[in-house]
Amino acid sequence: MGVAEPASSTIAHDVARGMSSAGAQVEAALERAAAASDLNIFTRLDASGARERAAAIDERLARGEDVGPLAGVPFAVKDLIDQAGLPNTCGGGFAPFTPAADAPCVTRLEAAGAIPIGRVGLHEFAFGFSSENPWFGPVHNPLDPELSPGGSSGGSAAAVAAGIVPLALGTDTGGSVRVPAALCGIVGLKVTHGRGSLRGVYPLASGLDTVGPLAAGVADAELAYLAIATHDPLDPFSVDRPLEEPAPARRPDGLRFAVPHPWIDTGFEPRIEAAFDDLLAALSDRGATIEHVTIPETAPSGMGLASAYFEIAPVHRARYLADPESYGSEVRQRISDALAVTEDEYTAALQWREQLRGGFESCLAGFDAIITPTTAAATKVIGEDTIELTTGPTFYRSPLSHFSAPVNNAGLPALAVPVADSGTPPLSLQLVGKAWSETHLLAIGKGLESAGVS
Length: 454
Known about the structure:
Layout: H1 8-16, H2 22-35, E1 42-45, H3 47-62, E2 74-78, H4 104-111, E3 115-120, E4 132-133, E5 137-138, H5 154-161, E6 167-171, H6 178-184, E7 187-190, E8 211-215, H7 218-228, E9 256-261, H8 270-285, E10 289-294, H9 304-322, H10 329-339, H11 343-364, E11 369-373, E12 386-389, E13 392-395, H12 397-401, H13 405-410, E14 414-418, E15 428-432, H14 438-450
Helix pairs in contact: 2-3, 7-14, 9-10, 9-11
């Protein structure tokens, strides 16, 4: 989708075999970042740190060492994930803090040979879907600079979509990896809650938070996922469960996909609805089984806000009460709303989470994946709060989060992949799988790519 940067596996292959160098890859990425400065993607470039890490990798390679499957691959880090010695702004208006240690997700990517080149913008405190940040300015979508890249990991998606890096780290609490991946025409993986580590990541709602990759292609996302998905015994949310082995690409023929109702029965940006119908027909033509199913638990419940907000409130309560004007207007109002959620409402929301997960898992017993658009709309204009849907003008958060947020509440994994020849920004397809089935979803995603669907 306009991404000029070579795939991670190509970079790693060339660097490991001396056809390129980590230093050359870093310099090229820094040059691309400078050339795209008008998109306001980076909050900080770490040129000196990236060059030092690249030199160390090149020295190790010269000694004949194996530096990992991501040798010399540059990547970007969402600016609420800790990197030792670099200010962490969280996209907020308060003074940043400077951590002493890297978050494990950064450490693990570096251990696989990847090199962070800088920190990228986000929606304020990851609490929103536009990345129109009141303190740092809006991140612009490389596909069309007048459009939002989505959020909250908007800078992560934009860095990949602009071809600056093939990989970026993001976080996903209600869709914050998948929504920007969708709006920027790239791949995003939301992992099962508990997969990997949240340590060193500024929390939004820890019972829903996940860390995941945004990537130029599915194979790139898989390489990053395999690097960061290790259990962290120091993180109380990290689950000690073995990683499933990577699986070969699974082309559409023989796959079974469930189209879920009433979840799918919503207002759409018209071209997204038409493109999704065309996609279902294309998958059927390629031998996939498409079955419309009812998952009663996906009916609107009104529980989503209480589910997240009760966990968000304590993160910001003291700071908000001391200085509410130091939050941007949108996030300030949302925190005020979060502080009003009661424990009884949260208890009911936790019960809803379990019901939702049960409904999804019951459906998935008979299918390879549940299939939806990733978002109900793909063109959010910067500075405009509404999107025109088939049901009329709607505040942007609803169509952007409609298909992503329930997956977080169910704790399940989901993969967002762009659909070929479906416009700009393209239709993004969301595949939802059983808990811990990330490699299965990635295999399907690789198969869709090889079949020319994505």
